[in-house]
């Protein structure tokens, strides 16, 4: 059954052309004319008649047409060399043989034409002309003819002879396929297996030509592969008694096996994977619809064979991509993403299926470790595709595979997946293991690409995968300190990985146990040394391409010790602020509240320290023990400062919803009571502020008074306060506090069954000081009330901070008579009397801070409500507000700022110009701090003006430009910052002053000696570049191009980072 050899030296082959062969194929494949007059004729008869008619027509043409004489000689020559039977009683097989002979003639002709082709040298006079085509090139119409012939060969010569369950049956394909299956006569010689072997072998021979290979394998690879599987691997039922009884010899079976592996290696690998999956079959189909043909179950030997071949495809180089593409493209995703790529990527079932395939170790693998060693790098490569549609599919598959492998084989996943992903971060922590010769200052430890890829991969695995597996969480814990340091560095300027770092940190903090999460936060704040931050030998730097890299830090000279100390202090302060920003996203889960309570408990330990011991002896440094004790005291002092700094940041960043359950509220009250008892025990006089203590006890009274629906479990939590309340009632000197502590103990002990009037009064007093929560639901909260509530919160924060730092504040609670704007909010315009106005004006000069602040808030409320009597005294009110701007208490000057803002909104023509004079020319009368507060008032007024700010464009810009030349560096920086915001509010329509602004910014950025001022100038430049349109950029090219040169002039690294315009 050998395929005929190439005809060498044949004159027929030399003279016959492709055209006559293709015409013969068309004649053989032409549809026949059916006899419509007979109603008894069937589709089977029509098909057989057409095949017989076409065969006769082809023979007549070859015999009678002189132009086809050479083709007949060539066909006869090839047929004589063929060792397979060509004549049969079965018309379908005779038709198949003639088609195979013509395809072999076409192949031989194309080979000879290509060998004789000599294109010659190209004409240099027409270099744009296309090169001459090879004579064996097929046109589009000729390719269609060849494809039709191949389809007939496969349909008549391959598919009918496949065993049940091997490949897709003809009946399940088309109606014509069902007809073909019925007309094939399997009883006529030659045998079905012989026919299948002949068809597959001749098709493989035809595919040996490059131009014909794609036509053969593009549409018919699956059927040919199915035939070769059956021929080479199907087990025989019995051994034949005689050699002549063998249908296939062992050499032919070996040929089939080798041919199958050859074509699997030659074709597009995703196509091979897809066809093998189809051959392997899926789960058994249901028989719900009797009309639909049901595919037979795939034989066991074929399932095992396809599984083995798929495993071989998988373990080849880029085998993972081939498997993924084969499954996804088979689902309709397309070769390069395709129109259905998003639908395929969104189908989690397919991703889970691929993940299970990849994570399952094949049986023929030597060991699981060897398999995953070769597989895991390919899985990581799936994360890094650039094409968007393909990347979405591959990343989802990679994430699912990552999670599946981590769940089923955690040790191997940690070794081959997690370690490579986190390697750049571990490299920073293991700097001590790097030889000193490779640690020269400025050496790049982690490149920009490595760090960006690491953070992106961690985000895709941890956050997108969102599976808190133990191996994943444990692997991320050692590098959390480095991640937080990187997050803090990204907050200094624009960075594409800032949001990724934040999401990773929020994810791990949310998935950790609460104790571990608090320990991690302590490490971020510098209170726990078990969390390793970025080593002191390393530092983050801005990379040339806009990313971040990690390098060896430059050595600090002795002269720069002050600068190093300043950098250390400012870095700790920035870390605390960034930690507060991070925790502001963790309020709903309760983590922020728990960490706030931890800080309060640490503050209690600070209060319990005996400060006298630190000043008993002067430190001499002569003894080792004394040196160690001194070092311990210094570390304790640093820890206390960190705690105070954290509390200050948390009080500023957190909202009133920081506590999410009663347990946290009780812990907060317990920390406050413990601190009160500790202060009383270690100091001669009572320095505990009565407001803080009464507020915490008032919270308990509010809960017990019915504001919260308490359950029996809640009273069990409240009982933790009983020992502390008993201690307060016995040691606190104020009898009112003592009585309230006793009453609270009784109410908690009786589960609210008995409650005294003191508890009710404390609850009402606390609710009257709350913000919108203390109002009835029918009263809407105005914008002014919202602002005053924020002022209330800031006043409490200010008092808390002052008490934490040891400052005394004897301000009594705000009396109900002057309780701020809440006493006048519901009053209609014109309802205030002259006496009320005079009383409030006098209270604005009261030495008591709460009385003064409440009066300022009341005046602000009247201005907002346009009270006629108050607006008649606008100059007096402006004077009062400006005087209170110089007050050192936060609550007072914030209330004054609010009042001046409302005045300028009501009378911008008069008030705004006066404020500009105060900001610009009042430097001899006002302190720098007051001028900064006036600047804040101006910015609030500008925001309130909205589009009307353009009317005051020139006075505002000129004032801030003059401020940029002020001797005070803080005022210069503030002026530049205000200038940037004014430009934003003007929508960057600067008009004729744009040249003045650009000249000022360039001069400051080049010549100013202070870093913060140069940073402010660079910040305004960045705002201008972002806000100016393309036309504006073209119009001011001369001025704007000078901005780009500033990046080369700046020497400070932070300024250089800010100066890089994306």
What does this molecule look like?
This protein is mainly alpha-helical and 1062 residues long. Among the domains are: 374-515 and 530-555, no CATH class; 593-614 and 629-767. 64% of the residues lie in helices and 1% in strands. The protein has 48 helices and 3 strands. It has a 3-stranded antiparallel β-sheet with strand order 1-3-2. Strand 2 and strand 3 form a beta hairpin. Helix 25 crosses helix 26 (624-653). The chain is elongated. Residues 1-15, 36-40, 285-290, 332-339, 610-617, 684-688, 770-830 and 1030-1052 have low confidence and may be disordered. Belongs to the Tango6 family. Residues 15-313 form the TANGO6 N-terminal domain. Pfam families: ARM_TANGO6, RTP1_C1, TANGO6_N.
Q: How large is the radius of gyration? A: 43 Å
What distance lies between the first and last C-alpha atoms, to the nearest angstrom? Answer: 71 Å
Question: How would you sum up the major sheet?
Answer: 3 strands, antiparallel
The count of strands amounts to 3
Kindly report the spatial arrangement of strands forming the biggest sheet: 1-3-2
- Uncertain runs are 1-15, 36-40, 285-290, 332-339, 610-617, 684-688, 770-830, 1030-1052
Question: Helix amount, in percent?
Answer: 55-70%
Shape: elongated
Total helices: the number is: 48
Percent range for β-strand residues: under 5%
Query: Which whole number gives the mean pLDDT?
Result: 77
Class by alpha and beta content: mainly alpha
Domain TANGO6 HEAT repeat: 314-588
Region (Disordered): 766-831
Protein name: Transport and golgi organization 6 homolog
Domain TANGO6 N-terminal: 15-313
């Amino acid at each position: 059954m050998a395929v005929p050899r190439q005809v060498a030296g044949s004159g027929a082959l030399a003279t016959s052309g492709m055209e006559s062969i293709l015409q013969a194929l068309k004649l053989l494949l032409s549809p026949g004319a059916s006899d419509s007059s007979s109603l008894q004729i069937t589709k089977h008869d029509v098909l057989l008649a057409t095949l017989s008619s076409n065969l006769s027509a082809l023979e007549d043409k070859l015999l009678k047409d002189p132009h086809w004489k050479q083709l007949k000689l060539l066909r006869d020559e090839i047929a004589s060399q063929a060792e397979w039977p060509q004549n049969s009683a079965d018309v379908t097989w005779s038709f198949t043989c003639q088609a195979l002979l013509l395809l072999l003639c076409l192949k031989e002709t194309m080979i000879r034409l290509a060998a004789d082709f000599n294109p010659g040298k190209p004409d240099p006079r027409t270099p744009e002309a296309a090169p001459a085509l090879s004579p064996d090139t097929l046109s589009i119409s000729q390719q269609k003819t060849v494809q039709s012939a191949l389809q007939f060969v496969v349909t008549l010569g391959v598919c009918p002879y496949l065993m049940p369950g091997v490949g897709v049956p003809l009946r399940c394909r088309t109606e014509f396929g069902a007809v073909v299956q019925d007309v094939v006569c399997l009883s006529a010689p030659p045998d079905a297996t012989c026919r299948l072997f002949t068809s597959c072998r001749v098709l493989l021979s035809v595919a040996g030509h490059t131009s014909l290979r794609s036509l053969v394998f593009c549409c018919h690879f699956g059927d040919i592969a199915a035939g070769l599987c059956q021929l080479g691997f199907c087990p025989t039922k019995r051994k034949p008694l005689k050699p002549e009884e063998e249908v296939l010899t062992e050499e032919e079976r070996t040929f089939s096996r080798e041919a199958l592996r050859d074509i699997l290696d030659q074709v597009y690998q995703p196509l091979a994977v897809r066809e093998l999956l189809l051959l392997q079959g899926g789960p058994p189909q249901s028989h719900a619809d009797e009309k639909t043909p049901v595919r037979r179950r795939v034989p066991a030997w074929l399932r095992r064979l396809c599984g083995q071949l798929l495993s071989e495809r998988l373990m080849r180089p880029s085998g993972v991509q081939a498997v993924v593409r084969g499954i996804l493209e088979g689902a309709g995703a397309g070769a390069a993403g395709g129109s259905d790529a998003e639908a395929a990527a969104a189908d989690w079932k397919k991703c889970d299926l691929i993940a299970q395939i990849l994570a399952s170790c094949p049986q023929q693998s030597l060991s699981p470790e060897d398999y995953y060693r070769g597989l895991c790098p390919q899985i990581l490569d799936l994360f890094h595709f650039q094409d968007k549609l393909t990347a979405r599919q591959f990343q989802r598959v990679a994430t699912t595979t990552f999670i599946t492998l981590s769940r089923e084989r955690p040790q191997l996943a940690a070794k081959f997946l997690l370690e490579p992903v986190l390697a750049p971060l571990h490299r920073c922590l293991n700097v001590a293991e790097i030889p000193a010769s490779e640690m020269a200052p400025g050496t790049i430890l982690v490149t920009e690409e490595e760090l960006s890829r690491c953070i992106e991969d961690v985000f895709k695995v941890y956050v997108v995968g969102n599976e808190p597996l133990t191996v994943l969480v444990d692997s991320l814990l050692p590098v959390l300190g480095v991640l937080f340091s990187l997050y803090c560095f990204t907050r200094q300027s624009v960075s594409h990985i800032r949001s990724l770092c934040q999401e990773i940190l929020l994810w791990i903090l949310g998935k950790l146990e609460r104790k571990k999460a608090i320990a991690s936060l302590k490490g971020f704040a510098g209170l726990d040394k078990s969390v390793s931050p970025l080593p002191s030998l390393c530092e983050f730097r801005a990379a040339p391409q806009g990313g971040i890299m990690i390098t060896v830090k430059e050595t600090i000279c002795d002269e720069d010790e002050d600068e190093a100390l300043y950098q250390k202090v400012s870095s700790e302060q920035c870390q605390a602020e960034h930690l507060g920003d991070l925790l502001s996203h963790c309020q709903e889960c309760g983590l922020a509240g728990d960490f706030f309570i931890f800080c309060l408990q640490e503050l209690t330990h600070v209060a319990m320290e005996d400060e006298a011991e630190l000043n008993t002896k002067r430190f001499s440094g002569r003894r080792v023990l004394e040196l160690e004790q001194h070092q311990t005291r210094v570390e304790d002092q640093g820890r206390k400062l960190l705690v105070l700094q954290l509390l200050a940041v948390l009080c500023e960043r957190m909202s009133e919803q920081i506590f999410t359950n009663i347990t946290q509220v009780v812990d907060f009250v317990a920390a406050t009571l413990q601190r009160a008892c500790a202060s009383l025990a270690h100091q001669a006089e009572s320095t505990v502020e009565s407001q803080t203590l009464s507020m915490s006890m008032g919270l308990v009274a509010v809960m017990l008074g019915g504001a919260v629906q308490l359950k029996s479990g809640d009273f069990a939590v409240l009982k933790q306060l009983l020992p502390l309340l008993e201690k307060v009632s016995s040691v606190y000197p104020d009898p009112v506090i003592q009585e309230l502590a006793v009453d609270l103990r009784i109410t908690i002990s009786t589960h609210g069954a008995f409650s005294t009037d003191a508890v009710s009064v404390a609850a009402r007093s606390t609710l009257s000081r709350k913000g919108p929560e203390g109002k009835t639901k029918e009263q809407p909260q105005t914008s002014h009330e919202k602002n005053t509530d924020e002022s209330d919160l800031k006043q409490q924060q200010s008092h808390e901070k002052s008490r934490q730092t040891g400052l005394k504040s004897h301000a009594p609670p705000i009396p109900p008579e002057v309780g701020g704007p809440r006493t006048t909010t519901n009053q209609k315009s014109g309802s205030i009397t002259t006496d009320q106005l005079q009383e409030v004006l006098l209270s604005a000069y009261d030495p008591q801070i709460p009385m003064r602040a409440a009066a300022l808030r009341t005046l602000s409320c009247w201005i907002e409500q346009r009270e006629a009597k108050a607006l008649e005294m606008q100059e007096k009110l402006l004077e009062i507000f400006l005087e209170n701007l110089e007050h050192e208490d936060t609550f007072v000057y914030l209330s004054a700022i609010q009042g001046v803002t409302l005045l300028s909104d009501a009378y911008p023509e008069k008030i705004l110009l006066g404020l500009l004079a105060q900001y610009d020319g009042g430097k001899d009368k006002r302190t720098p701090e007051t001028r900064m507060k006036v600047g804040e008032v101006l910015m609030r007024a500008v925001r309130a003006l909205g589009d009307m700010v353009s009317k005051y464009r020139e006075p505002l810009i000129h004032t801030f430009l003059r401020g940029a030349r002020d001797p005070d560096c803080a005022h210069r920086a503030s002026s530049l910052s205000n200038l940037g915001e004014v430009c934003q509010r003007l929508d960057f329509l600067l008009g004729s002053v744009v040249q003045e602004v650009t000249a000022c910014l360039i001069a400051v950025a080049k010549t100013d000696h202070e870093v913060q001022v140069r940073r402010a100038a660079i910040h305004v430049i960045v705002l201008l570049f972002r806000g100016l349109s393309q036309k504006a950029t073209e119009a001011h090219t001369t001025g704007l191009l000078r901005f780009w040169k500033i990046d080369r002039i700046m020497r400070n690294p932070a300024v250089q980072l800010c100066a890089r315009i994306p």
